[in-house]
Design brief:
2 helices; 76 residues
Amino acid sequence: MTENLVAESLKFMVLGMGTVFMFLIIMIIVMNLQAKIVHRFFPEPEPVEPTPTLDTSAQAKKVAAATAAIMHHRNS
């Protein structure tokens, strides 16, 4: 009688673990398929390269102001 219960419990264990394993395999396949579909219909936008600004005098003024502030701080 005890051997029969052990055999039945092993059958149920294998059946349960097999079910979980198959579910995980199917879930991985579905998620990979979903990722391919999403990337196909909604591709990531290509990064836009920043255009160089033509107003270099404004940048030069900012650099001069920062340099003057640092020099003033160091002299004080």
